[in-house]
Amino acid sequence: GAGVSQSPSNKVTEKGKDVELRCDPISGHTALYWYRQSLGQGLEFLIYFQGNSAPDKSGLPSDRFSAERTGGSVSTLTIQRTQQEDSAVYLCATAPEGGPDTQYFGPGTRLTVL
Amino acid sequence: GNSVTQMEGPVTLSEEAFLTINCTYTATGYPSLFWYVQYPGEGLQLLLKATKADDKGSNKGFEATYRKETTSFHLEKGSVQVSDSAVYFCALDAGGTSYGKLTFGQGTILTVHP
């Protein structure tokens, strides 16, 4: 079946602009995670959605970052007023349920802020 | 806090050589442990996992044993192939308030030459 998909695959933007990154999960997966992979910081957790519960936003680096998940399916990560340090690969992962369940990762969106 | 430390790479081996990639962790409670692999041009995928002490995860000839006494989860393979060239990430799910959120090591680049 279809895996996790993310769009766009690449995004180049100018400093100060807002960007939206999209994640389409595997059908039926209730848990959805966003991570960031950057040269300086490695792979970092950003935010976690589980079913209809309030999301765990503990990994978001600043209030410029936000995410939503509509109808328990598609998720959008929004970065406002982008900065050069936001340049990274943003990964989405989903799992059938939360907890130590295997997470299935999407191919990522490479964001470059000029 | 929770953390994962991997041996620094890159690691370069000849085909059929023995592979060890060291991973140690710090976590409260009883974490679940994972190895993820990222092949060139592909997304992260689960290689193997172990959810309790003394469990051995195995897949594609790779093995790792959850050692609580040494807080380690070293990855081994008896005979590597060129197709094993990839970046390997050790990760943990600490459970509790961190339930479902993966903490990753920095990644180890493995290159296998014919």
Description:
The complex is a heterodimer of chains A (114) and B (114). Chain A is built from no helices and ten strands. Chain A has strands spanning 5-7, 10-13, 19-24, 31-38, 42-50, 65-69, 75-79, 88-95, 104-105, 109-113. In chain A, β4 and β5 form a beta hairpin. In chain B, the strands form three sheets. In chain B, strands 2, 5, 6, 10, 11 and 12 form a six-stranded mixed beta sheet that branches. In chain B, strands 3-9-8-7 form a four-stranded antiparallel beta sheet, with no helix packed on it.
Produce the secondary structure layout:
The complex is a heterodimer of chains A (114) and B (114).
Chain A: E1 5-7, E2 10-13, E3 19-24, E4 31-38, E5 42-50, E6 65-69, E7 75-79, E8 88-95, E9 104-105, E10 109-113
Parallel strand pairs in A: 2-10
Antiparallel strand pairs in A: 1-3, 3-7, 4-5, 4-8, 6-7, 8-9, 8-10
Chain B: E1 3-6, E2 11-14, E3 19-21, E4 23-26, E5 32-38, E6 44-50, E7 56-59, E8 62-65, E9 75-77, E10 86-93, E11 102-104, E12 108-113
Parallel strand pairs in B: 2-12
Antiparallel strand pairs in B: 1-4, 3-9, 5-6, 5-10, 7-8, 8-9, 10-11, 10-12
Structural features:
heterodimer; A: 114 residues; mainly beta; six-stranded mixed beta sheet; four-stranded antiparallel beta sheet; 48% strand; B: 114 residues; 12 strands; globular
Précis, in short:
The complex is a heterodimer of chains A (114) and B (114). By secondary structure, chain A is mainly β.
